[in-house]
Amino acid sequence: MEALLDLIFRAEVALIILIVILLRTSIKFVPQNRAFIIERFGKFQSTKEAGLNFILPFVDRVAADRSLKEQAVDVPEQSAITRDNISLAVDGVLYFRVLDPYKATYGVEDYIFAVTQLAQTTMRSELGKMELDKTFEERDILNTNIVSAINTAAGPWGIQVMRYEIKDIVPPSSVMEAMEAQMKAERVKRAQILESEGDRQAAINRAEGEKASVVLAAEAEKDEQILRAQGEASAIVAVAEAQAEALHKVGKAANTEEGQKAIELDLATKAIEAKQAIAKESSVVLLPDSSTEAGSVVAQAMTIIKSLQGSKGA
Hints:
By secondary structure, the chain is of the alpha+beta class. It contains eight helices and eight strands, in the order αβββββββααααβααα. β2 and β3 (43-48) form a beta hairpin.
């Protein structure tokens, strides 16, 4: 009896172990951004995506585990010849991801190796279409053309190339020396151009400064002449007003008795002085007609003054 119970116990344990093994082999937990390729009896059965999945134990098996993340693969350095027959050493980095796990598994033996080799051949082909100077200036265009060509060829493999980046382009040492000499010449040329532009601008600034100085000097001279003319005009007006005022005062004074006597005395004095001047400057001696020569002159002058005053009164 005990032997029978022991046998039953062992059978139950074996059954439990078998059930655990079956569950373990039939349940598959697929991680995020991964895909399992399931084969049944060596033939593709299905693609299991992220999450809990079941397969038939001992019948189905995981043939491939494909990552759906973007991957970066280093493209080894290789030699390429440009259109102007310059040999270059070029390397880069390829970024791609698996779009179709089925094609990546059954479309190509090793998709990473295949896409790397395709990147190298495409890069050589694209560099052969460009001249040396363009490879440095149009690197973005070169990367875009390589990505487009790889995607066209890698479509049956279920691979999508996201981008391709050239890390280094190394020309021969002789070409490097020639390029350095060219760059040095360009720098010297730019420096000379900048210097000449500076000299030209300085000359323009000097000329404009001289022009402005001449204009300001002319305007200052013009203002000075205007002010001088205004001053002279004011002086003339002031002198004329002063003379008019003096004449007015003389005229008022002449209407008085004392003014008449002063005028008679002044006229007599001037007549005598005139006679003396004529006598000094001429060899002819002028004798007066009578002893009352000065008195007659004064009398004649007074007669003229009175007649003028009478005409004004009339």
